[in-house]
Amino acid sequence: MKKSRDSLTIALPGDDSTNCRLVRMKTQIHTISVPGDGSYDNEALSCSTLDISTHNGEPHGGLRGSNEFILSESGKKVTNDDQTGQINLWLQRKAKSAFSEKMIKKRLPILRWLPQYNSTDAIGDLVAGITVGLTVIPQALAYAGIAGLPAAYGLYGSFLGCIVYIVFGSCKDVPMGPTAIASLLTFQTAGGNVGKAILLCFLSGIVELLMGILGLGFLVDFVSGPVSSGFTSAVSLIIVTSQVKDVLGISAKGTTFIEIWRNIFNDIHNVQVWDTFLGLTCIAVLLIMRIVAGLKVGPADDELKSKNHRIINKIMWLVGTSRNAILVVVCGAIGYTFQSSATAPFKLIGDIPPGLPSFKAPPFSLTANESMTGHEESFSEMVSSLGSGLIVVPLIALMENIAICKAFSNGKPVDATQELIAIGLANIANSFVQGFPGTGSLSRSAVNNASGVRTPMGNVYTMALVVLSLLFFTPYFSYIPKASLAAVIIAAVVFMVEVKVVKPMWRTKKSDLIPGLGTFIACLALPLEMGILFGVGLNVVFILYHAARPKISVERLTSPAGTEYLIITPDRCLIFPSVDYVRNLVTKQSIRQSLPVVIDCSHVYGADFTAATVIDSITQDFAKRDQPLFFYNLKPSVCAIFEGLSPADFVVYYREEHLDDLLRQRAYKPKEVISV
Asked: Residue 570: beta bridge partners?
C-alpha cells in the first residue's frame, strides 16, 4: 500500500494463507519488492471471497496487478526514467506490428480471399454484380436529384469507389456508391453546388481516412439505437417529401421537412396532371413488383419443388429485384415517344454528358460563374461554407456502413477502423471523377446478399455496368421522366421509416422512446446535422442522469458474532455526478439506524477526485459521531484513489468474518436506535 498521513486500516494477508492480519499505518510507507517488469502480486486477492486457484505455480491464478500505484523500495513510483528510450521502444513495436503479415492482411483484406478465389466465387459474384448494377444505375440517377446535382454525377460516384473497396473493404456485401441519406446530407451541406459537393466528397474521405488511422471508429457508438432509428426515420420522410414536387410536377425548394412542405403548398396550384399520374402509377407498380419478388410457387419445402417451380421463382425474384431498372427503361421509352411527338407531357431529367468523366483533382476554389453567390470563393471560404457537414457526413457514412456489415456478418466481429479506411479511400477516389459522398447502401447490400455474392469482387461487375451505361446509354437517359425517378426513390426509402422498433422499445424500456422521438422531431424541424447532434446530446443527458443516480440497496444484517450492521451497496462506480447523492443517502440511513455501516464496494470499479473528497468527508462525519464505517471488497486501484487524500479512519476489509474483529478493535457497543 501507499503512505498515509493519518490512519489507514486494511486487511492484508499474514503468514498463514487462510488468515489475515490487521495492519494500522501512521505516516509510514509499506514498500513492495517490485520485479524488473514493474508488476506485482495483488495481495488483496488473498483476502477476497473469490475462489482463485494457483496457475502454473503462481499465486492468485497468475493475475498480476498494474504498476500504476506501486512504490519502489526508494518510495518512488515505478516508472521508466528514460523517456526517449521508452518512446523508441514503442515506435519499434508499432513499426514491427504495422509491417507484420497479420497486419498487412488485416489492412489489405483482398490478400485474405483472393488466393482462394475460384470459379464458384466468380459465378456468384458475376450474378450478384450484374443484379446490383441494374439497381444502382436508376438509383444513382435518382440520388443525384436528392443531392441537388445533375443526374450524371450520381453515376460518376458509382464506379471508381467500387474498385477501391474491393482492395480495402472487409465486407463482401457492401456496394459502394451514393445513398439516400448521404445524398440528402450532401444537399444540405453543399446546397446543390457541384464544386462544393465534389470537394465535400474529397474532404469527407480525408476525414474518414484519418479517423480510421487514428482508430476513431468507436465514435459511432455514441449514436444509440433509438437515436439512429429516429434519425433514419426522419431522413426517410424528408427524402419522400423532397420527391413529392417531382411527382406533382411543381417547383418547391427547401432543406428541412417543414420548409419543403410550405413551398409545396405555395405552388400546389401548378400541379401537372400527367406527371402526377405517372408518378403515382410508378409507385404502385414498384410496390407490387416488390411483393412479387417475395412470392413463391410450389410446395413450401424447397426439396419438394420441381425444376419448373424453381425457374418460375427465380424469374419472379429477378423481375422483382430489377424493378427499378425495368421501370426506368419503360418510362424512358414512354418519354422518348412523347418527346418525338413534340408534345411531351412529362418533365424529363434532361441531357446527360456522354462518356466517362475526366480524371482530375477536386476543385479547391470556385470562379464567380461556379459560385452560387456570384463571387469567387477560395478554398478556406468553401470549407467554411461546408461547416459541420465535414464531420456529420463521415460519421453518418460510417454509421450506414457499419449497420450493413453487422447485418450480414453472421455474428463475426466488424472492423470499424478498416471500414473507415475503405470508405475514406473510396470517397477520395470518387472525388477525382467528380463524384459526391457515398457509402454502402443497405438496399443494394440486401440485393447483393440475396443474389449470392461470394466476395467483394462483385463490385467489378457493378462498376462495369455503370461504365458501359456512361459510354453508350447516356443519350437515352435524358428521356427518363423526373416523376419515374421520384417514384423509385419514394418506393425505396418509405420502408426506411422504422415504425417496427417502437413497439419492442416500449416493451423493453419506455424511456428510450424519448431520445428516439426527440431526434425524429429535431431532424424534421432543423437541419440534419443539428438534429443528430440534438439526439446524441439528449442521449448523453440520459446517460449522465443514470450515472448521477445509481441504484443503492440498503440492508440490515447480522455479523457472525451477532452484531447488527447496515450494509449499503451502490451498483456502479463513484464519480462526480453521483457522489453527493450517495453521501446524502449514506448519511441519512446511518443516522436513522445508528448502526455500524459497511459500504459494499464490489461493484465500484472506478472513482475520481470528487469521490475521494466525499469519502474523506464521510469518514470524518462518522468519526465525529463515533459510528464505525468500513469499506468491503474495495478494488486496490479505487483504494489508491481514496487514499490519495489520506482520509481519517479509512478501513478496508475483504472477508466477512473480519468485521467482528474490526468492531472489537473499535470497542463498539450497540447503541439505542434513533427513530427519525
From this structure: 552
Of 171, 190, 166, 137, nearest to 425 (Cα)? 166
Q: HSE, CB side, 13 Å, CA atoms: give it for residue 537.
A: 8
Query: 56: which residues sit within 8 A by CB, 6+ positions away?
Result: 62
Phi-psi sector, 633: left (phi>0), alpha (psi -120 to 50), beta? left
Q: 3-state class of 150 per DSSP?
A: coil
How confident is the model over 290-334, as pLDDT tens digits?
898 888 888 878 788 888 888 898 889 888 888 888 999 999 888
Residues whose CB is less than 8 angstroms from the CB of residue 122 and which lie 6 or more positions away in sequence, other chains included: 457
Alpha helices for 14-73 (secondary structure H): none
Each residue's pLDDT tens digit, 56-68: 444 444 444 444 4
User: CA-CA distances (angstroms) from residue 390 to 126, 142, 189, 203, 360?
Assistant: 36, 23, 8, 7, 21
Nearest CA among 110, 158, 129 for reference residue 452: 129
Q: What is the DSSP letter of 410?
A: T
Amino acid (1-letter code) at residue 385:
S
C-alpha grid cell for residue 294? 417475395
Helices (H), 432-500: 442-450, 458-468, 474-477, 482-493
Question: Does residue 573 sit in helix, strand or coil?
Answer: coil
